[in-house]
Amino acid sequence: MQTILEFLNGQMNKPELFGSFQASWFQYLSLLLVIIGIIFAISRMKGLSDRKLNHVLWIFSGLLLGFEIYKQVIFTYQAQGSYQWYAFPFQFCSTPMYVALVAGFLKPGKIKHALMSFLGTFGLFAGLAVVIYPATVFVTTTGINIQTMVHHGSMAILGFGLLAHHVELKWKSLLHASFVFLALMVIAMTMNQIHNHWIQQGTFNMFFINPLYENGIPVLMIFQPLVPHHVFLLIYLFGFTLVAGIVFGFRLLFAKLQFSKDPLYQNA
What we know:
Helix content is about 70%, strand content about 0%. By secondary structure, the chain is mainly alpha-helical.
């Protein structure tokens, strides 16, 4: 077991951001593979049956959950067996693997549509943001770097595929996705309070909205010290919904441009 853990804890030079090929090859390779994956998802998920879509959701969830288990094991191993509460898998970027798993078991309907809308907007934005600018995620552990890029890259790939072909192109889809995000926020808030009152070990800051800690998310971190916590939570919800709305807006614009090129539309 020790030998296996040492192998899984293999080290590499910490990848640099947008540097020379020698220093940043891991980032460039990851970005290239994600772009290829996005193109493949957009082309192959068109007209996908509900049954096959469920398989895609399960594969996505299983892949991310498998890598997440590895991450938890390695972080605990690196800390000499002490569990690292800061890495508990319920940050915003962790939630798509749970959402996809649940969605894969649901029949077509409002709840499943809301979950897929979340994956195609909120999940897409979160994954793509990290893939494009992984400023704080790279470390010297090879497997963790791979896990990070597989996790966030898969979020972007699945998000593009769903948004292209399986999310209804109406603003109510974004509204439904925001309800899912709100529900996940409530779960994170509950977890934070449980840890604050009964566990009190290490740093536990799910969704970075635990009132005991500073929020390090750009822009949002400016508002936290200036307003009461409940107001900050509303700003947090609005901020993420706004960004997800921008992503969805680009998709609507693209769909409108495609429609305008249709010969039947031009001749109408």
